[in-house]
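Justification of computing resources. Each target in the renewal requires a structure prediction run like the one illustrated here; the chain below, 264 residues long, is used simply to show the kind of job we budget for.
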Amino acid sequence: MSQDLEARLKFAVDIAKQAGELGMKYFREVDKLTVESKGHQDLVSNADRELELFIRAAINEAYPGDGIVGEEHAPVASSTGYDWVLDPIDGTANFVRGIPAWTVVIACTKDGRTVVGAVHEPSSGETFYGRKGGGAFVNGKTMRASPATRMTEGSIGIGFSNRVEAAKVLPLMRDIMAEGGVFFRNASGALMLAYVAAGRLLGYAEEHMNAWDCLAALLLVEEAGGTIVEPDPATVLQDGTLVICAGKGIFPKLRQFSLDAFKL
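Resulting structure tokens:
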């Protein structure tokens, strides 16, 4: 099993990097992109679609029986129990405006549980990756979630989307600031989650994320010693999930603040 996961992890990292190189070609000529709006801060470009087709073709060749769940194209059913879950460009709102904070995200799940995750940020050349039971790394260096016990020791990532009532994040921001903390947002949920795994952010909370935006990096947070709200493997691929994660010392308070704010 571990050998198979290592092979799948290597594949995910390699394809994420290759897709990132392709994405950078579009990013350098961002003024030539065709961009459509799917709602507030929810954009799609021809680059998103081309990158997803590239990744899907690679998966079909390497793992033809596996399922594929992606943001821009229809899902492919699995005959193996494995599903690849991908977002070709997480942070499209940044991408189309020339802001270098966007990622290629690839996860692999087995029966709905994440076993491999890769988050590649082409602009910085950083790749965050790991497999179940194998640790989490950024460019070969082991990642550790923050050991902080107080919110004054760093920043908390906060996300929101047009799928929920955005104003619900305001009580969360208020409670974090009342603890002496600071909130952080860069419009790429996968990247902020990867920063939690790397110990750069204390934690992250969002009322709802799609599977392709969060599963890869949530695995990395766990493998880096952090704590997460576990997604439901029966529903996460189709319906998405609540996301709350942090280093162990911050998680209990962030979880309570988030549940209070989201009224869950």
